[in-house]
From TrEMBL:
The keyword Membrane applies. Keywords: Membrane, Transmembrane, Transmembrane helix. It comes from Nocardia albiluteola. This is DoxX family protein. It holds the Pfam family DoxX_2. It is a multi-pass membrane protein.
Length: 145
């Protein structure tokens, strides 16, 4: 509950919907960072299927390490405080990476068992959008003027 003095001072109200939004933001963001970092780990260590999948999609093998590095850096960018512009670029990069993976799997008819490649990449895209849309004002980049 906010007091009259807090409202008069212009302090933000803490509402139940604000708390739910904050919890949803952190749940999406931490899940997204975990998925990106675990995906990067699999790519760095050439886990089963990683090389095969990149080969099926027609990407060169050196591309795996490049993608993995950007996943780690992007995850760090969305988790640390500040750097609002960097966060925007990280979200954009994650969206381009995962939507590109979705389209690549779709075009090459590499759906995985039960459409897993499509389901996972689409789900991560949705998580990127949700984390971006739910982020608090102090973590978003708003152009002045």
């Amino acid at each position: 509950m906010t007091t009259l003095t807090e409202r008069a001072a212009g302090l933000p109200r803490t509402s139940a919907s604000g708390r739910v939004r904050t919890i949803a933001y952190w749940a999406c963001t931490v899940s997204l960072a975990f998925m990106m970092i675990s995906g990067a780990y699999g790519e760095y260590t050439h886990q089963y299927g990683t090389l095969e999948t990149h080969t099926i999609l027609g990407y060169p093998t050196y591309f795996i390490s490049l993608i993995a590095t950007w996943k780690v850096l992007g995850s760090a960018a969305i988790l640390v405080p500040g750097f609002a512009r960097l966060k925007e670029w990280a979200y954009a990069g994650m969206f381009f990476n995962m939507s590109g993976a979705f389209i690549s799997h779709l075009v090459e008819h590499d759906y995985g068992s039960a459409g897993m490649h499509l389901t996972v990449t689409a789900g991560i895209c949705a998580l990127v959008v949700a984390s971006w849309a739910l982020r608090p004002a102090d973590r978003s980049f708003v152009r002045a003027g």
